[in-house]
Amino acid sequence: MMAEKVRAAFVVARRDFTAVIFSKTFLLFLLGPLFPIVIGVMAGSIGAQVQKDLDRPEIGVAMEGVQGQALIAARNAMADRMAGGVPDFVELKRLVPGERFDGRAALRQGPDRLAAVVTGTLEHPVLTGTPERVDMWQGIVSTFAARARETHPGTFPAVQAEVVATSADQTRNGQVATAQAGQTLLFLLTMLLAGMVLSNLVEEKSNKIIEVLAAAIPMDSLFLGKLFAMLAFSLVGIAVWGMAGGVLVLSGARHLPLLATPAVGWAVFLLLGFLYFAMAYLLLGSVFLTIGGMASTVREVQTLSMPVTMMQLMVFFFASYALAHPGSAIEWSAVVFPLSSPFAMLARAAQGPALWPHLVALAWQGAWVLAIVRMGARLFRRNVMKSGGARKGGRLFSRLFARVATKREAPVTNAY
Amino acid sequence: MRMELGEWPVAGNEVDASGVELAIEARGLVKRFDGFTAVDGVDISVPKGAIYGILGPNGAGKTTTLRMLLGIIDPDAGYRRVLGCDHPTDAARRIGYLPEERGLYPAMKATEAIAFLASLRGVPLKEGRRRGRELLEAHGLGYAADRTIRQLSKGMAQQVQLLGTLVHDPDLVVFDEPFSGLDALNQGKLERMMRGLAERGKTVIFSTHVIAHAERLCDQVAIIAGGKVPFAGPVDVARDRLAPQVRLETRAQDGPWRAALPADARHEGAFWYFTLPASGVEPLLRALIEGDAGILSLSIERAGLHDAFVAIAGEAAARALEQDKEEERRR
Questions:
Q1: Same domain assignment for residues A154 and A200
Q2: What is the ipTM score, two decimals?
Q3: Number of structural domains, chain A?
């Protein structure tokens, strides 16, 4: 009796083992450990790169004649020998005798990385900046000024502090933090919700209702209908979580970190956040729906979940990396590439006040949603509606890449 | 069904050479799947109000042909016009379709399932619910209206889907292997329903691998094998492809009358079998009487659809048809 049980178990095990081991999806399983490693490395390096880019403040110099140049030369000569990070010194303006320079105005309007301004003379330097920056850099400005005054290198001049409430650098850092927070939230929501679309068409296929739907309505409508239903479902979820979060914020607001006001203002930022969530969801959802549409079983959907999640992460990392390089080719790539576009554009909303790029981006992303849905519907129609009844036996990869023809129809089963 | 037709878009009607109005006209339909030609130059003309059968073994291309006619898939070559529309999906609201693999959402109530299928074909949901209840009542399933599909037996669920196929009162109803999986009683009910639809002026097209269904129901058939349609037309014309067979029984075993028998005459048991000569049976009768053969019985049998199928599609296709029937019986 026991031997018979073992024999039967062996028969089942042998079938399952060969079915899995000789499937192409097994490759994905083998590649599985690679994904977390790649993601970990990417996350680490991108995070470090972003932080490095953000923590490279500049001190602007505006002094009479060659004094500014001398101060910068002193900084360059000593920086390597000093502990900790020494900010870059850049000459903002070479002043003529008697000319005055408004350090406060420069900090308000200056380049993004401008964190403080040194004016005055090498004997009486004036450091303008936020209180933290002034406290941090008074010493090094005095040291460099002493070095620059070649006649009295051992005498450290007193640095006069001019404190301002904010600076271009601080605003930028704050807005970058807002952009990061917005991107992260957007990513978490799409990751949480868009993945559900993967298994969405499996229901129709297992219920055998797919052919009735395909005969009655265009496949594009089926795909779009499913996407919008899932989007609406997600928005309900977000509304509930938002309300719960609102209650938490109201009850403990003092303990929450305050984010800097985004460049477009909070109202527009939130509106854009909503629109970009919808677009990110529809874009990722349409890709997932296409991929998931090729799967016939829950097991296939599970196999797909890992690479799909990794793909989401890649897109997020790409957009995160681009965030720290506004205006660069990499940021433009993130803006143009449809899947990362919503993330990159939300970061732009936090960092730049222009609104028209958002209208263009939303139209661009919307066009891509339609294009992907159309392509997915065609792929689905071509591969799934191939023979008598929805295909059951074919491999996922074969369906995705359409290499297998079914010559003999499968036996009929009704799925009520 | 007691329901009114909706307002359908006006479309031009196709007419064949003999002036018959066509519900479907397809010419040279071709469908290839990765190098395999599933359907190879199919021509079909389905008259309005007819019951039309697509007859062939599994794998012959029946489902693919129906899917092309319905617009579920597009042909690689060829042309089709359905209810006056160049693209079948433009006429989707006037078409009902029961696929070979049947299924509904298990969590839906019967009425909701019918209303959902109706709404796919353009009937407002509220109206679909009303019609659904009405149809369920009319077919003795009123008690199941609020039960979910998963609570119904398989036969009942199939009936619900059938009602959902007809709820929008379509002008053209397409059934893919409608009799498979049904017991004899329900097969009879379905045959009556199909005849009823045709009597009300609806066009019915169905695929089958069972010749008896096609022979009993169809005005016209398309015989399909290996993706090709060697014959499409009235069932009588298909049967007339074979000359009638004569069966003769005589008292006398031999005599000069035997010279009057056609060259293909063969003697099996007590009977002579031969193809009815082109000149008819009268000269033979004369010879039998004059030769005192003593005619015990003489019958002229018109060829059945099965024989016509064998003659038109070939022995291999006929064998495949029998295998399919056998397989279904086993299932």
A1: no
A2: 0.78
A3: 2
